[in-house]
């Protein structure tokens, strides 16, 4: 039994020697500490000295003295402990022993005889934790020195470094994972983190970690050329400049949430693995991501709260759709209680962007209403408001799915009288046509009124055909407006040419025919002169109108000349009556009607 006891005693001595490391002055203390195990030297119980064993507070005091000498030699050292693997392992063993003894002392907190020892242990733990916090930072800061970009950053070569911070280049492969730290470095960080959490310094450890990872994200984000505008600066920046910033923002936010943040989450999980609680991991991840997330969201929020000018619609839709695509990723990444406010804020800003889009789209109606007829548009051509509205609607319909969702959701949530996208677009077109009806009244010539409406309706119809806008409006709308266009055509021809052609169809004696020919020439010349300055932009419509006019004027003129020549009253007279135009001359003049554009 004695031999067994001796073996146990020597085993205990080896354990303590390993904890105390290489300090030779501790040899005498080891024998004193071992006396606290009792005569049997039984290691079946707790090998650490406690006050309950023989009531020996001296043993606890001596154990703390030994640990303090061992640990203090590292705490006061000028060089980093983790610059030497042997030193770091020895130091961690000593820290483990200190934390364990401190735990035993706290379990005997009611015993006043151990109060002094407990106070000393707590003070020593505080010094240790401060040094571990410094070492944690040292290990993270030295990581770039041994970082191999080709091995650790799959799919991206030659990453830049700036002031010792690894900075990822912009990428397009969103399946990539940035492994910013080597496995050995992660192992060292995890070893320190485990001790800091055990010593009650979880927040300090998290702070040391997150401050350096934030720097990585900030530097990486700066390489994407975001200007980091405040909300006030966004409001003051010209929209043309903001359009470029929005393009950069979309690229940045996609990269951040698909590459940077998932990589940071993976790194957090590895650094803070094997901890008794997951809150340190979640807190650290939130602290790493919060600044970058807030910066990105503030920009989107500033855009959402900005002006409702119609031309802003398309870029705001781009912002909305980018966030829409990333919301599921945000919900996954920001699922814990620390990140929950960030997720809620992202969803709220996404909703505000939707409200902004609805407001901007509604503002199009006000723009049409505020465009009153002032002066006649030269030549009856396509009015700028028609071009603007139709190109606007056609471009907007490329985001049909998003607009339908926005008009649906924002209307239902606000309880307002909202209209589906198709109804909204029809309503905008009705406002446009009503506006054009008002503008046509600025023309004194009825024929030019109809030509103006024909030009604009043809443009509207063409823009609505064979694209998403036409699908939204439906075939019935297309058929209805094609019929309206034919009616304008008929009205133009009747108001402009019926009176002229009527002169050629009048029956009467020879002098009456001669008078009608003179009147026809005068009116025909006047109409051709006037309408040669009218505008028909669409080449097909221009040819259709000329052909239509020629189709009624040429036959009538040909018949009139034939009747005039066959009149019995010219028999016996010398020569034929003066005929100003041949049929070919008339047709040539008709081909000169209308021009393509007006300055």
From TrEMBL:
It comes from Arabidopsis lyrata subsp. lyrata. The keyword Protein transport applies. Keywords: Exocytosis, Protein transport, Transport. One of its GO terms (biological process) is exocytosis. GO terms for molecular function: phosphatidylinositol-4,5-bisphosphate binding. PANTHER family: EXOCYST COMPLEX COMPONENT EXO70B2, EXOCYST COMPLEX PROTEIN EXO70. The keyword Cytoplasm does not apply. GO terms for cellular component: cytosol; exocyst; extracellular exosome; nucleus. Component of the exocyst complex. This is Exocyst subunit Exo70 family protein. Residues 248-590 form the Exocyst complex subunit Exo70 C-terminal domain. Belongs to the EXO70 family.
């Amino acid at each position: 039994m004695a031999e067994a006891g001796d073996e146990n005693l020597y085993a205990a001595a080896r354990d303590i020697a390993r904890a105390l490391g290489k300090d030779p002055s501790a040899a005498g203390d080891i024998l004193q500490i071992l006396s606290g195990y009792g005569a049997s030297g039984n290691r079946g119980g707790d090998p650490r000295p406690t006050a309950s064993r023989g009531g020996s507070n001296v043993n606890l005091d001596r154990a703390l003295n030994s640990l303090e000498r061992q640990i203090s030699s590292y705490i006061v050292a000028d060089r980093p402990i983790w610059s030497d693997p042997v030193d770091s392992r020895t130091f961690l063993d000593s820290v483990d022993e200190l934390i364990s003894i401190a735990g035993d002392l706290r379990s005997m907190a009611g015993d006043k005889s151990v109060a002094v020892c407990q106070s000393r242990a707590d003070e020593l733990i505080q010094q240790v934790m401060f040094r571990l916090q410094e070492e944690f930072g040292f290990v993270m800061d030295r990581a770039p020195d041994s970082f191999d970009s080709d091995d650790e950053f799959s799919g991206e070569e030659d990453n830049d470094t700036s002031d010792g911070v690894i900075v990822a280049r912009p990428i397009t492969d969103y399946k990539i994972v940035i492994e910013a730290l080597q496995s050995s470095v992660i192992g060292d960080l995890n070893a320190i983190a485990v001790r800091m959490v055990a010593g009650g310094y979880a927040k300090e450890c998290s702070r040391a970690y997150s401050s350096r990872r934030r720097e990585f994200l900030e530097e990486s984000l700066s390489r994407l050329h975001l200007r980091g505008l405040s909300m006030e600066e966004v409001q003051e920046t010209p929209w043309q400049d903001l359009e470029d910033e929005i393009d950069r923002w979309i690229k940045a936010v996609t990269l951040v949430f698909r590459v940077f943040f998932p990589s940071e989450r993976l790194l957090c999980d590895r650094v803070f693995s094997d901890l008794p609680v997951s809150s340190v991991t979640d807190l650290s991840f939130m602290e790493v991501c919060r600044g970058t997330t807030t910066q990105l969201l503030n920009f989107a929020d500033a855009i959402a709260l900005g002006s409702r000018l119609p031309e802003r619609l398309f870029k705001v839709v781009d912002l909305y759709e980018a966030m829409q695509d990333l919301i599921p990723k945000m919900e996954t990444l920001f699922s814990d209680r620390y990140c929950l406010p960030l997720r809620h804020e992202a969803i709220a800003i996404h909703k505000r962007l939707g409200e902004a889009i609805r407001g901007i789209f509604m503002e199009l109606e006000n723009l049409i209403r505020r465009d009153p007829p002032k002066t006649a548009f030269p030549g009856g051509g396509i009015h700028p408001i028609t071009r603007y509205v139709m190109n606007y609607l056609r471009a907007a319909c490329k985001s049909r799915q998003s607009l339908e969702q926005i008009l649906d959701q924002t209307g239902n949530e606000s309880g307002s009288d909202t209209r589906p996208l198709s109804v909204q677009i029809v309503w905008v077109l009705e406002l446009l046509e009503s506006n054009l009806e008002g503008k046509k009244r600025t023309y004194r010539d009825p024929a030019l009124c109809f030509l103006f409406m024909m030009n604009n309706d043809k443009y509207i119809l063409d823009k609505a055909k064979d694209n998403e806008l036409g699908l939204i409006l439906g075939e019935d709308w297309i058929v209805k407006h094609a019929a309206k266009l034919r009616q304008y055509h008929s009205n133009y021809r009747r108001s402009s040419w019926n009176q002229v052609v009527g002169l050629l169809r009048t029956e009467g004696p020879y002098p009456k025919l001669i008078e009608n020919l003179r009147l026809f020439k005068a009116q025909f010349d006047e109409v051709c002169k006037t309408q040669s300055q009218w505008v028909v932009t669409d080449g097909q419509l221009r040819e259709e109108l000329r052909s239509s006019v020629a189709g009624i004027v040429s036959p009538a003129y040909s018949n009139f000349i034939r009747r005039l020549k066959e009149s019995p009253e010219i028999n016996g007279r010398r020569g034929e009556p003066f005929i100003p135009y041949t049929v070919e001359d008339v047709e040539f003049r008709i081909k000169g009607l209308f021009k393509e554009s007006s300055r």
